[in-house]
Write a structure and sequence with these properties.
The chain has about 170 residues and is α/β, with parallel strands linked by helices. The chain has helices at about 10, 100-110, 125-135, 150-155; strands at about 15-20, 25, 45, 75, 85, 115-120, 140-145, 160-165. The strands form three sheets. It has a three-stranded antiparallel beta sheet, with no helix packed on it. A three-stranded parallel beta sheet has the order 6-7-8, with helices on one face. Helix 2 (about 100-110) crosses helix 3 (about 125-135). The relative contact order is 0.11. Mean pLDDT is about 75; it is low at about 1-10.
Length: about 170
């Protein structure tokens, strides 16, 4: 039986292997939704080094990334040291470094033709995902931890996403 190529298949041509971060087991490159076949641990992708900009290693074309203006945050000197610099990620659109991740995660969801995304969160993870999903035209469900601080939980309401606290 022949299967259609994944929209993300070009990325796998640059991957060397999948490797489990828990037990070190290796697997051939390709989508793996269940994790490690040995211990169900999370997998990382080992890439071969390729010539070209780092964007070439993204699983979607850089032009297809979802943008809210993230990543244009200032670089400031730390404590007057000439060698130590900090990137002020709190100045991203949702106030979180997670904007970078969700620019990519939501682009992948859109590339795979998903119409909605879901996540659990105690704060800025859900806010970032909801904001990027809204920009991409996807619905977003954020499941909230009832023990999380009230201020971050208010970030998840409409129009960016729907927040649902879990039942006790």
């Amino acid at each position: 039986m022949e299967t259609a190529a994944s929209p993300l298949s070009d990325l796998w041509t640059q991957a060397v292997q999948l490797r489990c971060v828990i037990c070190g087991a290796q697997a051939p490159p390709g989508p793996s939704w269940a994790g490690c076949g040995t211990c169900q641990g999370p997998l990382v992708v080992d890439y071969s080094l390729v010539d070209g900009p780092p964007g070439d290693l993204l699983p979607v074309a850089a032009a297809r990334l979802v943008s809210l203006g993230q990543s244009h945050t200032p670089l400031v000197r730390y404590g007057g040291s000439p060698a130590a610099w900090l990137k002020l990620e709190g100045q991203n659109p949702t106030g979180s470094h997670k904007d970078r991740f969700h620019a990519l995660s939501i682009a992948i969801a859109r590339e795979l033709a998903y119409c909605a995304v879901v996540t659990s969160s105690t704060g800025n993870q859900g806010a970032a995902r909801a904001a990027f999903a809204a920009r991409a035209g996807l619905r977003c469900l954020v499941m909230l931890d009832p023990d999380s601080p009230a201020a971050p939980r208010t970030q998840h309401g409409p129009p960016a996403g729907t927040g649902i606290p879990p039942s006790p």
